[in-house]
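Many introductory courses stop at the sequence. We go one step further.
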Amino acid sequence: MGTSLGFHIVFAVLGVGVPLLMATAEGIGLWRRDPTWMMLARRWSSAFGILFAVGAVSGTVLSFELGLLWPGFMAFSGSVIGLPFSAEGFAFFLEAIFLGLYLYGWDRLRPFQHWLTGLPVAASGAASSIFVVMANSWMNTPTGFKLVDGRLASVDPLSAAFNPSTPTETIHMLVSAYVVSGFVVAAVYAAGMLRGRGDAFHRRGLLLGMAMAAVAIVLAGITGDNSARFTYGAQPAKFAAMEALYATTRGAPLHIGGIPSDSQGRLLYAIEIPYGLSILAAFDPNAEVRGLDSFPADQRPNTVVVHLSFDTMVGLGIGLGLLAALFWFLVWRSRRVPSNRLVLWCLVAAGPAAVITMEAGWFVTEFGRQPWIVYGIIRTTAAATSAPGLGFVFGAFTAIYIALAFTLVRLLLLLARHNRERPEPKA
């Protein structure tokens, strides 16, 4: 299921951000009566149709895997997570309906009517993200029920859905989706410019992608900081693993980089900033931060995976933010899209880097909660299936996903080639 999630989440986040880019480009095109902006929206809609189809298939697989691979989890928590998953299903079907109208309505609806059909696609994509993450938030801070003889009782679905983690986790995931979408779209047009396609079509595609990325990366930094501070109080074991803090410390230093050593009980080769962690966690240089030594050995996350994932997320996130700032500084200074090849290569690399950043963030969320699938209540080992023969199924699914990924890339490249053979609008 981890492989399925890692594959599907890429389509999920693009399903949040790309529709907003489509609606924005078409709105600008209608406002300015500009054919270049309209062509951008039309071509993005064709590519998004392919992405949506693949994402729908991989998302359907996940719904089956919940029941087949996690019978203990579904039996325990089905009455709680049913509400957000049902709401997500409603949002998905709403998105599918309006995407159909949007794709097939280009030459059948009036321009303004067609633009209006794109707004529900963007809104329902964002809503789907929020509803799914609500279920994951509950797994991190389970509320809205009473526990009677190991079973859930007196369930309040709304209270469970709007649990303490929901505000920080859902907002951070939403803006992260816009970060990924913006940088991925910008990377495509930066690659085109490196091949000599410096026309208005490519310049505007790059500008709009970087506009979304720049705004979202700032919000992602703010919401990520809030999320980490919330984790300090709600999931101290995860917080200790994120920072690889082995010993409970008052006035804890902030470590940059480093490799955790469980055998030695310390972080090796890190840069240390005195009192930094206590200040970031509690705005108090003398605040106490619980270390891994305050938790039983069988209730500690995998420190190596969590810390390295956290450093990858933060390091790449800062790099992406600096790149966005540099890009817009160059635009402001020269009043045009940068054509420097080094900058363009960095923008190309920023696309996959944004995806890696997002995947690393989910590694922190999921591995950091271990050994619990529902924090403090039910362990992952008790929730997973004990059915034999899963190794073969896992291998088969991995092969299918690899083949599906190659097919998707091939289809997108063919679409891009077909688009290049069309005459570009003059602007």
